[in-house]
Design goal:
Pfam families: adh_short_C2. This protein has 256 residues and is α/β, with parallel strands linked by helices. The protein is built from 7 helices and 7 strands; from the N terminus they run βαβαβαβαβαβααβ. The chain has one domain: NAD(P)-binding Rossmann-like Domain (Rossmann fold, 3-Layer(aba) Sandwich). The chain has a 7-stranded parallel beta sheet with strand order 3-2-1-4-5-6-7, sandwiched between helices. Helix 1 packs across helix 7, helix 3 packs parallel to helix 4 and helix 4 runs parallel beside helix 5. The protein binds nicotinamide-adenine-dinucleotide.
Length: 256
């Protein structure tokens, strides 16, 4: 028996990173999975490998959401789980951030989550779950990621309002707040064929040894297990909450 037997779950940004691990784990746990991304080659290869459906979905485009929902309905009859995982990060001091860059981060991270809730919740006629991927920076500041942190704070607001509005439809809505996780977003060496990504991971562990009580960067598989908890009946009485998964980073600072 899998924890997601009989469920149909759409994961955005699922071609790589945390979304990929969520898609893999959800399949292992018995769900039909819709792998959605803008990276078609990687997304299609993953879907083929795990026996899922791939859809091209730019989360910032409402027409793409409509097409993805239709494709999922045609393939599996319905959708009853959504993980809004797709996201982008841009580094810039606020005073140096061009408006276009700020708006692009808003459009993908924040509007993407809103459009996902809007497009998919009406499909969940028998109840369902929505997991929004926020961040450590949804709960505290971090210099040089102002646009990103603003959108991640906004995702928590959206999560709470959606939980209130959708509870009557038996749809639970929660958010994950990962700290530093070893994916291409935090470890761009993963995207560089010439780089040694494993060495880069070790270097990151060294950096986070000083910052994070648990002494290392997080793994995307660990976030996938939290997404599974929030998507399965194990969290049946939980809605509207942010879940921090950060190795203790937000707990405070050690002065000695
Ligand atoms: P990643 O860059 O490996 O994965 C992001 C995925 O989103 C990619 O597959 C990318 O193609 C996809 N994507 C980007 N723009 C898209 C769009 N417009 N439409 C559809 N898909 C799009 O990074 P990740 O760490 O796996 O990121 C997953 C989520 O976790 C993001 O929301 C990110 O903000 C969040 N997060 C990451 C970290 C971290 O340290 N890696 C920490 C906290 C939160």
């Amino acid at each position: 028996m899998g924890k997601l037997d009989g469920r149909v779950v759409l994961v955005t940004g699922a071609a790589r990173g945390q979304g990929e691990q969520e898609a893999r784990l959800f399949r292992q746990e018995g769900a039909e999975v819709v792998v959605a991304d803008v990276l078609d080659e990687q997304g299609e290869a993953l879907a083929k490998e795990i026996g899922a459906l791939y859809v091209h979905l730019d989360v910032s485009r409402e027409v793409d959401w409509q097409a993805a929902v239709t494709a999922a309905r045609d393939a599996y009859g319905r959708i009853d789980g959504l993980v809004n995982n797709a996201g982008i990060l841009r580094f810039n001091a606020l005073l140096d951030t061009p408006l276009d860059e700020f708006m692009r981060v808003v459009q993908v991270n924040q509007v993407g989550c809103f459009l996902g809730v809007k497009a998919v919740a009406p499909e969940m006629t028998g109840g369902g779950t929505i997991v929004n991927t926020a961040s450590y920076t949804a709960l505290t500041g971090m210099a040089a990621v102002g646009a990103y942190a603003a959108t991640k704070h906004a995702i928590l607001g959206l999560t709470r309002v959606a939980a209130l509005e959708l509870a009557g439809r038996r749809i639970r809505v929660n958010a994950m707040c990962p700290g530093a996780i070893d994916t291409a977003m935090s470890n761009p060496a993963q995207l560089d064929p010439a780089a040694d990504a494993e060495e880069a991971s070790k270097a990151l562990d060294g950096l986070y040894r000083k910052l994070v009580p648990l002494g290392r960067i997080g793994r995307p598989e660990e976030v996938a297990r939290l997404a599974l908890f929030l998507t399965s009946d194990d969290s049946s009485y939980i809605t509207g909450q942010p879940f921090v998964i950060d190795g203790g980073w937000l707990a405070g600072v050690a002065v000695v």
